[in-house]
Design a protein that fits this description.
The protein has one helix and no strands. With 45 residues, the chain is mostly helical. The longest helix has 25 residues.
Length: 45
Amino acid sequence: MAWKLLIGVMVILILAAAGLTFYGSQVTPTQTPVEQVVPNERLGN
């Protein structure tokens, strides 16, 4: 009976790994606009 439990756990782990692989391949990172400020020599220090 313990071998049925072991096989069940292995099947669940394989399905979870496949699901995470599919999800990871579909997700794209969010693009955040970045503005670079160039120092101006006319600004007093």
